[in-house]
Amino acid sequence: MTGETAVRVALDGLVEWGRRLGQVAARERVFVALSGPLGAGKTTLVKAACEGAGFTGDVTSPTFTLVQRYPAEEPIYHADLYRIDRPEELRELGWDDLTGGQAAVFVEWADKAGEELPADRWDIRLEYADGGETRTVEASVLGSAPAIPAIP
Question: Could you list the residue range(s) of the whole structural domain that residue 92 is in?
Fold first, then answer.
């Protein structure tokens, strides 16, 4: 998938797509900027992506630890910027290492990073749809990031 698209998907479809995202993101070392309201499915998507990349352990939102590393065949980093007040705080998290393209990185509440987001990335926004039974997914490729797998 290239460009930007908005698709409605059931939660099981979101999980299926997340697994494919994880495979590609891990292989290509993609930075994935996730946004959307609380409970929209950001962590669910990251869990599925980690599974798709081969990680079989527990995946939880790193709201308090801020960054978690999952040792899959290719490591995956998972960050949660919910508690960040200013982009300047990112330096304390090792932001330069996260944005250096050495591994796949999934960042929840990525909009809080502002101009510190890398130019080459996937932007994925999740929203509630149909009374919460489905999600609207908006996905776009920025810079020279690879194509995003098609949403089911």
Answer: 4-128
